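Technical note accompanying the year-one report. For the benefit of new consortium partners, we illustrate the data format agreed upon in the data management plan: each record pairs a sequence with a structure-token string. No post-processing was applied to the example shown here.
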Amino acid sequence: MVTISGYSAEDFAKAKAGDFSPINKSINWECEQINHYMNMKLYHDDVMFIADLSFPGLFPNILHHKRPSKVFMFCHGTSLNNLDYFEKTRLTKMMIEKCHAVLSDAVFVGSQYHVEKLSWENTIVTRLPYPPFETYALSKDKQIISVSRPTKQKVDLEAEKAVMNHFNLYIHRPQNLQSWEDYYKFVASSEIMLITSCEETFGYQVVDAVLNGCIPIAPNAYSYRELLPHKYLYDNETDMMCLIEQALNGILGVPELKCDREMKNFYQNLAYYMRG
């Protein structure tokens, strides 16, 4: 097995919040990958795995010229998401994603919700692996946090305002974090992680919360149903307030993830499907 431009756990730990899809770095990195790939000696029975279907860019064109017998891809998100991060290029990106999917023998996704939304014939649910970071058990100096990007897709500001008014408390957001270690410590020092997203295809925030002893409260929708027991999910604002009150009073503790086993066996499951 050969990994092109692979990252180690140390690389991820050093990554900063501002490193999310920097355009110039992403293009340079992709060109390095393509150059590396074109200089590899590939055999007909080799298998290729593309770690993110949404970002292989030029790679599908390269596949037409130098392609092993089997190609697999992982689709983490999609432009079908409501108010997607790439909303301005939604239609173009959706067509590119579908073309990428057709080029592969199978597309792995993180949830059944994602399968149903995409409606592609070659999708397989494998979940995602546990993050390769150190976790923490810290004293709680924050009652409620929100760690989502402050966009319409990820945060309902009106709902958060209602929570702050109802409980007379402040919802903290991460500020000036320098690494994933800082982010995990921020989560670990919090009692509750409130999620008000209107879209999610896997739900790593929930995983981050559970790993670091923080109670996640999320909508009863999207992929959250596949991660959390029902008693941590809300259908409306009244339910949300009730769950927060239970968590603040110690009635609701940190849950176990419903797909724990699949996440622990993620790489074995990928290998199983790629072997056919």
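Partners are asked to follow this layout when depositing records. The chain has a mean pLDDT of 88.
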